[in-house]
Every structure is written in C-alpha cells, then in structure tokens.
Design goal:
mainly alpha
Length: about 500
C-alpha cells in the first residue's frame, strides 16, 4: 500500500502493533494471560471492597478444575451471547442485500454528484458523533459506508472508515439530542447519591449533561474533519485501488432509487407507528417510553436496508426473483466468515476477563487512588477524565464502568462541592475518547475485517495508529471545552451547573 509522509510516532505504533500475532492468536493469548493473572491474584488474596455494600470483590482463580470446567461448558454460550455478534449478522444481512443489489453504490454516486468534496467529511463525522442516539447501531453502519464513500471519490477508504469510527466511538457521548445512555448513566448516578445519604434533597437530572454534550458535537466534528484532512489522509497516501467510476446514473438506477425511496419511506412510517404503539411503554419520560423501540433498532436497520435494497433491485432490474435475494443474503454472510472466527475467540477472552473480577478490581483501585491525590475543582475533573480513559482500555462498557465507579466517585465529588452531573460528564469524556484504540472494544474485530477489504495486511497496529490521533485530539478538545464551561460557570444541563447548591 502506498503511504504518504511519515509520522514517526504513529509509524512506530503501527510497526509495534503489527508485530503482534494475528488478532485471533492475540485474543487467545490474552485469554491465557487472564487465566494466569487470575490465579496469581487469587493466591495473593487481591481484592477490594465493593463500593456499594462493602462486600469484597476478590480475584477469582480460573486456573483450576472449576475454571477449566466453566470455560468448556460455557464456550458456546459465550460465543452466541457475544453482544456484537447478533447485531452484526442481522444488520449486515440487510446491508449486504442493499450493496449487492446496487443500491449503496447508486446512493454513493448520487451523493458524490451533489455534495461538495469538503462537505462529505463534515457530514460523515457529524452523523457519526450523533449516531449514539441509535446506541451501537452507528458502529455497524457508518464505518463501512464511510470507507465505500471515500473509495468512490478516489480517496483512501481507510480514511473514510477512520472518520466514521472516530465520530461514532471517540465522540460516543456527544449528541445534539438526549439518548438512552443519558437515562442509564443518570440511574447509576442517582443510586450513588441516594446510597451516600450526603445530599438527601438533591435530584439528579436525566438531561443534566445535555447542554455540554450538545456544545461538544460541532467542536468534535470540526476537530475530526481537520484530523482526517491534515493527518490521516496525508499519512495514508493516495489510494492505489481502482475507484468506482463516478458515471451518471442510468435510467434503470434512477427508477430503482425512486422505488427504494418509497420503500424506505414505508419502513420509516412503520417504525413511527411502532414507536407510537406496540414498541412504546407507558412511562412519564419520552426516552423511557421509547426504550423498547431503541432496543429493537437493529431489526429496523435490517429492514431499512433490506426492503429498499429489494425495491431498488426490482426497479433497476438487478433482482429478478426471490432466488436473487437469497443469493445476495448468503453472499453477505459468507463475507463475514473471518469476523465470525475472530468473534468466537474474542468472546472467550471477554468472558474470562469478567469472570476473573480483574476489571472491577482495577476500576475500584483507580477510583481510590484518585481520591487519595487530594485534588479539587478543575484538576479533580481532569483527573477523573484521565482515570476513566485509562480504565476504558480494559473495561469498554460505559455502564459497567460507571456502575463500579459511581458509588465511589460521586459521593467524593459531592463532598468537594461538585454536582453529580458534573462528575458524570467528566466520566463520559474519558469513557468516549479511548474507545477507538482499546482491544476490548467489542466491535474492533468487525472493523478490522472491514479494513482488510482494502488493506489485507492491516492489523491491530494499523487500527491503533489510524485512530490514535482521534483519541488524543478529541480528548484534548473535549477537556478544554469542559474547562471553559467550568471557568465561565456555564450550565451543563437544564438548571444544572458544576457546584452543589
């Protein structure tokens, strides 16, 4: 692959990372490392008190007969229960049909014809930053679309993948709109305040981070665009693959796009009807009421690509019968063979890491270490961002980390005069920025599979070097914005600031 100007640090990261074994071997090796570490920590009596009830979270020895038995008995369950697996397979079923029928290529050609070149990157990253309104769905849809879009313009597809992945994952908490993550995190924050008895009259606001996260959205979009244009694309160099010829749409393709548009509108109408009826719960909050709809988003993504894809194929003449649809769906699944193999090994690693309790021990120990530093105000918030960024390298789930950290961190910050919402927003910054470089990101195997379509030699080091600029720049920009809000005492949400009343 042709490369552009050398960037010494990133090149070193890539070389070092790519010297690691194949990701399948790497995850298998890490599983063995976790098992060995669990045995050592268990024999040394490593453990921490649970931040809520005081019970001991002790390291669990997996290098014994019980651990061996559990690994073998639950290996299949670990694989089938691996959270991204079902989502990837279901979503790619629809995306694969839409791609094979010609819909995706026709839409990209139409977009290239109408959208200015510079605006493409802006739109891709902006949509990515806001994609967490659909939970993890953006991670499935946008990176492959970004790669295809850049390739169709003669730009490096890995830059398109990086721009989309950076927006979705490194900017995960930022959004112009409230999301289900606001509800989930606020629930843990509220429980931590209640259990501490430090602020019995204080009510944690679900939208207590909304103003700040909305302000971060255009900031991160701009930073991501500059990074993509000035750092990522120059480093990757010119795309030596053959870009798809951007020819005018044929009459058949225009007819297919009209049919796909009508089909997409019908699916959207059905989704609105479902969100107003069977997929809506009786709850006072709109976000809570729509929880069933958000939980079914993967199925809607399937329909949103599958139905218009079939409609386009019929209109454009690329689908003649139901056998063509079945063939396209089968091909989409066959292309995911490498991902499925990698997902099996990654699932065993993540399961053993959870069984060992090592992640929870590291999180609680980190929180206690931060408490002992004696920081206050802005330095304390920055310290929490750095701690969370570090922990995110080992424990990727935003809610799992906050469930462990909140009972320790929130009361400590309240005692120092900071609101629970301010504590929570600092946590969300740290939780987002390192998502794109941690091997614990459940969707990393899927994204690596996409990258290898364009660079068969791409490895873990390639992905880390590609995404590290987004981690560093998003972290600095987001932290700087928080310090501006702090210095000017701006509200971070409706009726919520940094300081306790």
């Amino acid at each position: 692959m042709i490369r552009g100007p050398r960037i010494g640090f990133l090149d070193a990261v890539e070389r070092l990372g790519n010297r690691l074994p194949d990701p399948i071997t790497l995850f298998a090796s890490l599983t063995l490392v976790v098992i060995a570490a669990s045995a050592i920590c268990a024999r040394l009596g490593v453990g921490v008190p649970h931040p809520t009830d005081g019970s001991v979270i002790a390291a669990v020895d997996l290098a014994n007969a019980a651990g061996f038995r559990r690994l073998f008995l639950e290996a299949v369950r670990n694989f089938t229960g691996f959270a991204p697996l079902g989502a990837v397979l279901v979503a790619m079923l629809g995306i694969g049909v839409a791609e094979a029928s010609g819909l995706v290529q026709a839409m990209l050609r139409a977009a290239v014809a109408w959208v200015p070149r510079a605006a493409v990157t802006w739109a891709l990253i902006f949509v990515g930053v806001n994609a967490n309104v659909a939970s993890d769905a953006g991670l499935l849809v946008l990176p492959p679309i970004g790669a295809l879009l850049f390739a169709s313009m003669g730009r490096h597809p890995l830059a398109g993948l990086a721009a989309a992945f950076g927006g979705v994952a490194a900017g995960f908490s930022a959004n112009l709109f409230p999301t289900t993550l606001d509800v989930l995190l606020a629930g843990f924050t509220r429980e931590a305040v209640t259990a501490s008895h430090l602020a019995p009259d204080y009510s944690v606001q679900i939208l207590g981070n909304w103003y700040f996260l909305a302000a971060a959205t255009p900031l991160l979009t701009g930073v991501g665009v500059v990074l993509t244009h000035r750092v990522v694309e120059p480093r990757l160099g010119p795309w030596e693959g053959t870009p798809e010829a951007i020819a005018p749409l044929t009459a058949e393709e225009r007819r297919g796009l009209w049919a796909a548009g009508l089909a997409g509108a019908a699916v959207a109408g059905l989704a609105i009807a479902a969100a107003s009826g069977p997929l809506r719960d009786p709850a006072p909050s709109l976000v809570d009421a729509l929880a069933p709809f958000f939980q079914s988003l993967i199925v809607w993504i399937l329909l949103l690509f599958l139905v218009p894809g079939i409609a386009f194929g019929i209109g454009a003449g690329t689908i003649k019968s139901d056998r063509d649809v079945a063939r396209m769906a089968g091909k989409a699944m066959s292309n995911l063979g490498p991902y499925i193999a990698l997902a099996f090994v990654a699932a065993q690693f993540i399961a053993t890491f959870g069984w060992s309790n090592l992640g929870a021990i590291v999180a609680v120990s980190g929180a206690e270490g931060l408490q002992q530093l004696g920081l206050q105000g802005a330095p304390l918030l920055v310290g929490l961002i750095l701690l969370t960024s570090f922990l995110d390298l080992f424990l990727a789930s935003a809610t799992a980390k906050w469930a462990v950290l909140a009972p320790v961190i929130v009361p400590m910050f309240v005692l120092l005069g900071l609101t629970p919402e301010a504590t929570q927003v600092a946590y969300r910054i740290g939780d987002s920025c390192t998502n794109v470089i941690t091997p614990f990101m459940p969707y990393l195997p899927y994204l690596l599979t996409i990258a290898r379509r364009y660079d068969p030699k791409a490895g873990t080091g390639t992905m880390v070097a590609l995404m590290l600029p987004y981690t560093l720049s998003f972290g600095v920009a987001w932290t700087a914005l928080l310090l501006v809000f702090y210095a000017l005492d701006l509200p971070i949400g409706p009726g919520v600031g940094f300081w306790m009343p």
